[in-house]
Specification:
There is one protein chain. By secondary structure, the chain is of the alpha+beta class. It has 6 domains: 132 residues, wza like fold; 91 residues, Outer membrane lipoprotein wza domain like (Outer membrane lipoprotein wza fold like), CATH 3.10.560; 81 residues, Outer membrane lipoprotein wza fold like (Roll), CATH 3.10.560.10; 114 residues, Outer membrane lipoprotein wza domain like (Outer membrane lipoprotein wza fold like); 67 residues, Outer membrane lipoprotein wza domain like (Outer membrane lipoprotein wza fold like); 32 residues. 27% of the residues lie in helices and 22% in strands. The chain is built from 14 helices and 25 strands. The strands form 6 sheets. Strands 7-6-10-8-9 form a 5-stranded mixed β-sheet, with helices on one face. A 5-stranded mixed β-sheet has the order 12-11-15-13-14, covered by helices on one side. Helix 6 packs across helix 7 and helix 10 packs antiparallel against helix 11.
């Protein structure tokens, strides 16, 4: 406050006592003398007085006011006046034209009530509102099982969880150097907050997330010490499993009940059988004391009594039988109505699915049609590979097995002959479909694709019964680098590589002409040298045998 404003402040204090000496001055003039800016500037300052992100609104009945809190006092006169005030280091709030009020140590609710009462004694017919604009900064200490114990600056609106989160943040210099604590080693339910006045609070973060009751994540004060203890992951725990949103093993604290466990596990899933929950308790020697069935839904609704938990208790929530799933297939290619279609579990057959799609078009190639099933995951294949390795599989077989397994993940084909089923009514080919099956009906291809070491790669019109030479000639013939003895026919559907004398070329097949492998002069000389060495050794052995036999 400016030195010249002391008389004004004294006048304001007299007004609170009932004097009318200062009423002759206009409100704006008096506020100007006090160094209070006009309404427009005050509004701007209030808008800019933000703080850090907050998890929830400040509770006026629990927030304790202290030095450096910024409080807005709005007097709804004509024109209205907004005052942005800061609690002094002595814990007082100096209100122009009103006086000095002691607010430190009061709850925000109490401080607001006292301030409104004081202002209204001066402005009898005006409404008054008091708002906390910016919580004050505070200093707290975090110790115990955190990565970076130490002193942290937060705000009086922050809760214990934020202090612990800051203490567990790793700087770029620590990444790869500092070994973080394992989550199961850190207590999240027995966090102790020691206040300067000797009182304590306990933070219980799993229960706070389950109930959103603020007492489980208390607000911090100046000088608080947050103590994060370690815990044993296998002892002093309870387990809650089954149809819950967050099943698992949790630390147990004194006073825990079966409903607390349900809150910590974030409640039931839609398939939970709430009336048939298995509750198991152990004795001190680790043997089963008893198993019984409880109605956790009735306990939750208050129809049956809640009861306390003990270390080692286990709660199992079974699931209801519900086989309703998104059973559907996808049909693409040469059908009249390609798309996604619903099927009935273990009932819909391939012929029925094609009828739902309107049947085949005139361009459908039944010989090349495929039914693809996705019944295996990458994890399943990895496990199969490991198990197969235990059986002493040869290295070359192992590589080939891994290749085929990777193909199974992407394209697991069901052995079915579309041509036999739909052209010859072979019902043995009418397989039962499963969810996520994928039916592909390609179009008829009346070409053979020739590529590799030929003059012109491309599609050649198919001629029934024509030999491979016909297609090579149409492609301009083979180049000088062609490896003529290793021609391969790649079958359109099976992708098998066959020699020309092993198969008849069909529409959609591929003709592959490989390239002659070029060897360097050094490679050729090396082979000649090795051959010469072998021959020399062989001749020496023969001469030695002849000498021995003489």
């Amino acid at each position: 406050m400016k030195p010249g404003n002391f008389s004004f402040l004294a006048c304001g204090m007299l007004l609170v006592g009932g004097s009318l000496v200062c009423h002759a001055q206009s409100l704006k003039e008096r506020l100007g003398e006090a160094g209070v800016e006009d309404k427009e500037k005050l509004s701007t300052s209030v808008m800019q007085a933000g703080g850090s992100a907050m998890e929830s609104p400040v509770d006026p009945r629990s927030y304790v006011v202290g030095p450096s809190d910024r409080i807005a006092v709005n007097i709804w006169t004509s024109p209205p006046v907004s005052l942005l005030l800061t609690v002094t280091p002595e814990g007082t709030l100096i209100i122009p034209l009103v006086g000095e009020l002691q607010v430190s140590g009061l709850t925000l609710h109490e401080a607001k009530g006292n301030t409104i009462a004081a202002v209204k004694r001066r402005y009898l017919r005006s409404d008054v509102s008091v708002t906390l604009v910016q919580p004050r900064p505070i200093v707290v200490n975090v110790v115990g099982a955190v990565i970076n114990p130490g002193t942290y600056t937060l705000t009086a609106a922050d809760r214990a969880g934020r202090a612990i989160a800051l203490a567990n943040e790793m700087s770029p210099e620590q990444v790869g150097v500092v070994i973080p604590l394992l989550p199961e080693e850190i207590s999240t339910r027995n966090v102790l907050i020691r206040h300067r006045d000797g009182t304590t609070d306990r933070a219980d973060f799993p229960l706070y997330l389950g109930t959103k009751e603020e007492r489980y994540n208390p607000s911090l004060r100046e000088g608080d010490v947050v103590v994060v203890p370690r815990r044993e992951p296998q002892r002093h725990v309870f387990g809650i499993y089954g149809e819950l949103n967050l099943p698992g093993r949790y630390e147990i604290v004194e006073g825990d009940s079966v409903l607390d466990a349900l809150h910590i596990a974030q409640g039931f899933t839609p398939l939970a059988r709430r009336d048939s929950v298995i509750f198991s308790r152990l004795d001190r020697e680790g043997g089963v004391k008893y198993d019984r069935v409880i109605n956790l839904g009735a306990i939750q609704s208050g129809q049956e009594p809640n009861f306390a938990l003990e270390p080692g208790d286990r709660i199992i929530v079974p699931a209801m039988v519900d086989l309703r799933q998104d059973y559907r297939i996808v049909i693409s290619g040469q059908v009249k109505n390609p798309g996604t279609y619903p099927i009935t579990r273990n009932m819909t057959r391939l012929s029925e699915a094609i009828r739902m799609a309107g049947g085949f078009t005139e361009f459908a190639s039944l010989e090349s049609a495929e039914l693809i099933r996705r019944s295996i995951s990458r994890a399943d294949v990895e496990l199969e590979t490991l198990e197969s390795s235990r059986g002493g599989i040869a290295s070359e077989d192992s590589s080939y097995y891994q290749l085929e397994s990777q193909l199974r993940i992407r394209k697991e084909i069901v052995a079915v002959n579309f041509h036999q089923l739909f052209e010859h009514n072979d019902t043995t080919q009418d397989v039962t479909l499963k969810g996520d099956d994928y039916i592909i009906v390609p179009s008829v291809k009346q070409t053979v694709y020739v590529f590799g070491q030929v003059v012109t790669n491309g599609h050649i019109p198919y001629v029934q019964g024509a030999p491979v030479e016909h297609y090579l000639q149409k492609a301009g013939g083979m180049t000088e680098l062609a490896r003529k003895g290793d021609l391969k026919i790649v079958k359109a559907k099976s992708k098998q590589w066959l020699s020309p004398d092993e198969t008849e070329i069909e529409p959609g097949d591929y003709v592959w002409v490989p390239r002659e492998i070029e060897r360097s002069f050094g490679y050729t000389m090396g082979i000649i040298g090795q051959t010469a060495s072998i021959l020399s050794v062989a001749v020496s052995i023969v001469l030695l045998v002849i000498q021995i036999n003489k």
